[in-house]
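Data card: per-record layout.
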Amino acid sequence: MSSAPLRSPPLRPPRMKKDESFLGKLGGTLARKKKAREVSDLQEEGRHAIDSPMSPASVDVHPEDTVLEENEERTMIDPTSKDDPKFKELVKVLIDWVNDVLVEERIIVKQLEEDLYDGQVLQKLLEKLAGCKLNVAEVTQSEVGQRQKLQTVLEAVHGLLRPHGWALQWTVDSIHGKNLVAILHLLVALATHFRAPIRLPEHVSVQVVVVRKREGMLHSSHITEELTTTTEMMGRFERDAFDTLFDHAPDKLSVVKKSLITFVNKHLNKLNLEVTELETQFADGVYLVLLMGLLEDYFVPLYNFHLTPDSFDQKVHNVAFAFELMLDGGLKTPKARPEDVVNLDLKSTLRVLYNLFTKYKNLE
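The structure for this 364-residue chain is written out next.
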């Protein structure tokens, strides 16, 4: 009798590895710790959150963003906001500003959330801006050390900003957690408080997705975060005599303008130049550069500035160069932005000229 032929075991479709699917990744970390039913529930929560119209699915969710403890929450910026030109401009302006402030420290910031979260760059930035020295360790590798340094830095920041009424929209946890919105709030506040010589784009807002875990379920929602308002509103905590003059004593404005015109013409007349309109004739920066040379008694080489500027950028260059000459002459950083002077902002121009008048008014 012939024996029955041996049959090969039926072919089974290869099993997909758990980590090959997105949902597998989503629940992979907890799958090893929880029962199969709990893992299934977690994956279902993830699917619901991802498929929901108001979910963080469109925010390029990472698995670690959905593995939350009870009552824990995560926030992330909606990608449509990240692509907004005004948002991109705000980020670029702030990065360039931080790098300009820290140029002598040989620190180069490329990505705000990756370079500022541990407190090292924020420490150097605050020390430069406030002219102080913080009592913190220079290098901290451990997470505990980073948080301690960050706590010290932020306490110093709060000591400067809180008396001026700033809403403190950041915490140690949010900064150390690389929350870009919190970092932007902090930098906008510092730039405004210290009157950084930059022009922040106005009315920048972002859509933020908030994911929370309550009673074992993920809940998501959208909120709008306002990062900047108007230049005037952002500077509302740094009021000075000119704010008071414009708001409460406009009748005296003509007296101040006449005094400043007399002062600048006393010196510009030496070059056969005369000013009759402060807000327009200083807007291209040429008269400011020439005036600094006259006040400090030196010739400014023509290759250092644009004698006949024909673009906004060339005018900003001239005004910024004049500001550098003022710093070299021992004056404080002007409480105005070059862009504001170029944009015919009378109050900014008066601040700059009054700064010169205070120091050089008795100069023959």
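Known properties of this structure: Residues 1-8, 11-36, 45-65, 235-239 have pLDDT under 50 and may be disordered. Residues 105 and 124 are 8 Å apart (CA to CA).

See the next section for split statistics.
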